[in-house]
Design brief:
- It is built from ten helices and eight strands.
- The chain is an alpha/beta fold.
- A five-stranded parallel sheet has the order 2-6-1-7-8. Strands 3-4-5 form a three-stranded antiparallel sheet.
- Helix 3 (56-68) crosses helix 4 (76-89), helix 3 crosses helix 5 and helix 4 (76-89) packs parallel to helix 6 (126-141).
- The termini are far apart.
- The structure holds 2'-deoxycytidine-5'-monophosphate.
- 2'-deoxycytidine-5'-monophosphate binds at residues 33, 55-56, 59-60, 119-120, 123, 150-152, 201, 205.
């Protein structure tokens, strides 16, 4: 069975994407950790005047909740309870990228190396992915247009998206970027262990049975290894114009 057929068989049907019918216009940006997809997606959303949704933050928040409760993702009751809670109280601020669970801000807590690893582990679970599917779609329902980033946006969550991009970069380049970020925040970096973590996370995200990270058949693949972020944004904006998603006057302006 193909992956999309597999998604249908599970009842993970796509939402209507036709703006005429009230569905949001969706651009999906999938790719591995460190490919630059969050910066690119947020910049793109700002220029389009659309919502920016980073679905990794939803997996991260669930991982944080499970960890704080001392529960495992294998505990189905906890997963169902926490996802129901997430569905009601989870909020992402499109402009700042801040993440809230009810009144509590969890922006920084969900970005620790520990939660990054836990999120990647939790995301392998079939029940977790199935339960989080409507949560991810719901965020987009409330807006006119959205740029969503993740691993399976184009293949499973929004298979009918107007435009799909798979943004990638070599593991070495991604490790280098991450090392620069860490150094910029005044901390020490072990470059070798960073590269090892990237390889491990890629293997887990791309190798899992359910909704593995991969480019959709109709995705445009962009390798950002040798491209500046701004050039990646411009490339995608051009694709948006070509797809008739934006009037020619708007794009390119910050
Ligand atoms: O994009 P990110 O690094 O914040 O994502 C954190 C983890 O969540 C990542 O290792 C894989 C998982 N994830 C996923 O499986 N599917 C998504 N759509 C988004 C993230």
């Amino acid at each position: 069975m193909t992956h999309d057929a597999d998604a249908d068989a599970r009842g993970w049907k796509p939402l209507p994407q036709d703006p005429e019918s009230g569905g949001a216009k969706v651009v999906t940006i999938d790719g591995p950790a460190g490919s630059g997809k969050s910066t690119v997606s947020r910049t793109l959303a700002m220029r389009l005047g659309w919502q920016y949704v980073t679905t990794g933050a939803i997996y991260r928040t669930l991982a944080l909740m499970l960890h704080e409760a001392g529960a495992s993702f294998a505990d189905k009751g906890s997963v169902e309870r926490f996802v129901a809670f997430l569905s009601e109280r989870y909020r992402q601020d499109s402009r700042s990228g801040r993440v809230y669970l009810g009144e509590r801000e969890v922006t920084h807590e969900i970005r620790t190396p520990f939660v990054s690893e836990q999120a990647s582990i939790v995301a392998q679970d079939e029940l977790v992915r199935r339960k989080l599917l409507p949560v991810q779609r719901k965020v987009v329902l409330d807006c006119n247009g959205a740029v969503v980033d993740g691993r399976d946006m184009g293949t499973v969550v929004f298979p009918d998206a107007a435009l799909k991009v798979f943004l990638t970069a070599s593991p070495e380049e991604r490790a280098r970027r991450r090392a620069d970020e860490i150094r910029a925040s005044g901390r020490e970096v072990d470059a070798q262990s960073l590269l090892k973590e990237i390889h491990e996370r890629d293997a887990r995200d791309a190798g899992r049975e359910v909704a593995p990270m991969k480019a959709a058949d109709d995705a445009v693949i962009i390798d950002s290894s040798v491209l500046a972020r701004e050039d990646v944004v411009k490339k995608i904006l051009k694709l948006c114009i070509d797809q008739g998603l934006v009037p020619l006057a708007n794009p390119g302006e910050s």
